[in-house]
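Below is a filled-in request sheet from our internal design queue. Each sheet records the structural input a requester submitted and the sequence that came back. We keep these sheets so that new team members can see what a complete request looks like end to end.

REQUESTER: design group, bay 2
PRIORITY: normal
MODE: inverse folding
CHAIN LENGTH: 208
BACKBONE (tokenized):
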């Protein structure tokens, strides 16, 4: 369950952070005029880290996938992956990280793919009441609920073309930052998603 504070504000906002950060990413290309397509979240079992993936469409028609994490304190050893800090009106200072370099996201992604998991259900809190809502993006893993999930501590992340490749021991995860065009999964377990205007599942990531 992902808890969203409906009346909360962020300063800078997520859009401002994306606009500032994306042009420096080698896979992003021209991000002028980008629009939000949707987003999905994963649960953090410890309830400490917000794990959210943004889908964005650029003026040129490219579809980008941007996983971020939100923390209430700096991530040890995570300076290179820090996007920025932002002030949350309900939670205070939040440290925003590139999810592909954050163990919380890597673990959640691996679990979703390998065990056939899905996005977190959203619960909005406003004026002391909580209301459940559906996410705008629905994702599902192709694995088996009985599958084990390896430890991802010490995982490393490298950009290869327009993909992020995360390695943790014998596990390799590939996160597609650019979702356009064909993608060969090689028979690996995958995370696929649908969103408004796209009912045909698109491969978002894989594990091998």
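RETURNED SEQUENCE:
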């Amino acid at each position: 369950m992902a808890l969203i504070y409906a009346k909360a504000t962020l300063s800078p906002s997520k859009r401002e952070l994306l606009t500032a950060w994306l042009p420096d990413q080698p896979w992003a290309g021209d991000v002028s005029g980008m629009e939000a397509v949707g987003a999905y979240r994963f649960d953090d079992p410890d309830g400490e880290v917000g794990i959210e993936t943004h889908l964005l469409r650029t003026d040129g028609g490219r579809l980008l996938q941007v996983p971020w994490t939100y923390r209430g304190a700096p991530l040890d050893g995570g300076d290179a992956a820090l996007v920025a800090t932002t002030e949350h009106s309900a939670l205070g200072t939040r440290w925003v990280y590139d999810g592909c370099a954050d163990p919380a996201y890597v673990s959640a992604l691996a679990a979703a793919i390998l065990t056939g998991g899905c996005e977190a259900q959203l619960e909005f809190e406003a004026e002391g009441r909580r209301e459940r809502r559906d996410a705008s993006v629905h994702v599902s893993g192709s694995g088996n609920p009985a599958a084990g999930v390896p430890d991802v501590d010490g995982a490393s992340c490298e950009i290869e073309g327009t993909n992020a490749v995360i390695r943790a021991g014998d596990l390799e995860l590939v996160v597609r930052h650019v979702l356009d065009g064909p993608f060969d999964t090689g028979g690996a377990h995958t995370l696929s998603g649908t969103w408004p205007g796209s009912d045909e599942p698109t491969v978002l990531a894989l594990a091998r």
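SHEET NOTES:
- The mean pLDDT is 92.
- The helical segments are 14-21, 103-115.
FILED BY: M.R.
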